[in-house]
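Sequence design from tokenized structure. All designs in this work follow the same two-part layout: the structure record, then the generated sequence. An example of the structure record is given first.
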């Protein structure tokens, strides 16, 4: 499955960057859907004040990634941010077998049905029963929310010390400039990519419309309430899995994309 989505030699085209020195490192890589649609992928590692590491949406575990991780600390948490961002859970579990794996409901069953490597989920987010805690050290630094109304069952995290929102498919920030910067290919070329970009950039209303209508009338009010709850968090940076990192004005970008939902939430209170 991974061979159809990611480059055959990810080490050559991956961008490893210190977003926050000694605290947050991103691993950005090319990612193609259907072999043509340039989306880009990104894994993020956060070093907690305890020295433990939390990994979000893990990417290919290359030698360079292993080296960078070893320089940061001990991997204690590995989170699949939704039911799609789980391809590399197996290799990471093998390399760091004591790490607690986090994911949304449905993912353990999906991996089993696909014949993926078995991994033990320590924490599973479900719609009917909120997850009260991950651990004291983790909870001290992160706010988190589960958004089951999203088609991919999103889990969103906010690292409070650095005011950094980390998510997968909740919000895109096209184009994926950094993620394709080592490929020699334009991140915006191709008809499918251009069409995709119209609905995944953060400038116009394309992404707002996509999110609004994809929820449907039944799920929309609850989705809106969850966006309103996330909007109350204090964040200035947003690290998406797809597209470039948003620095400084992340809250205003979030409010622009989720504006219709935030208005709906206000009317419902």
């Amino acid at each position: 499955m991974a061979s159809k989505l990611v480059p055959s030699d990810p080490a050559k085209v991956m961008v490893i960057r210190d977003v926050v020195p000694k605290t947050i490192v991103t691993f950005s890589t090319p990612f193609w859907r259907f072999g043509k649609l340039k989306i880009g992928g990104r894994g993020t590692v956060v070093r907690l004040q305890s020295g433990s590491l939390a990994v979000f949406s893990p990417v290919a575990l290359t030698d360079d990634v292993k080296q960078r991780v070893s320089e940061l600390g001990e991997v204690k948490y590995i989170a699949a941010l939704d039911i799609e961002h789980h391809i590399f859970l197996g290799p990471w579990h093998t390399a760091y077998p004591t790490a607690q794996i986090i994911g949304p409901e449905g993912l353990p069953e999906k991996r089993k049905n696909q014949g993926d490597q078995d991994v033990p989920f320590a924490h599973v987010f479900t719609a009917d029963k909120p997850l009260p805690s991950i651990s004291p050290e983790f909870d001290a630094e992160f706010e988190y929310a589960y958004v089951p109304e999203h088609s991919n069952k999103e889990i969103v995290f906010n690292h409070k010390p650095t005011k950094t929102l980390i998510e997968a498919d909740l919000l895109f920030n096209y184009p994926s400039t950094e993620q394709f910067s080592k490929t020699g290919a334009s991140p915006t070329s191709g008809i499918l990519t251009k069409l995709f970009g119209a609905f995944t950039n953060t400038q116009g209303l394309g992404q707002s419309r996509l999110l609004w209508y994809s929820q449907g009338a039944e799920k929309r009010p609850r989705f809106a309430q969850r966006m309103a709850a996330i909007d109350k968090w204090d964040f200035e940076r947003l690290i998406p899995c797809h597209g470039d990192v948003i620095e400084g004005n992340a809250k205003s970008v979030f409010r622009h994309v989720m504006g219709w939902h935030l208005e709906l939430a206000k009317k419902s209170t």
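The radius of gyration is 18 Å. We note this feature because it recurs in several other targets discussed in the main text.
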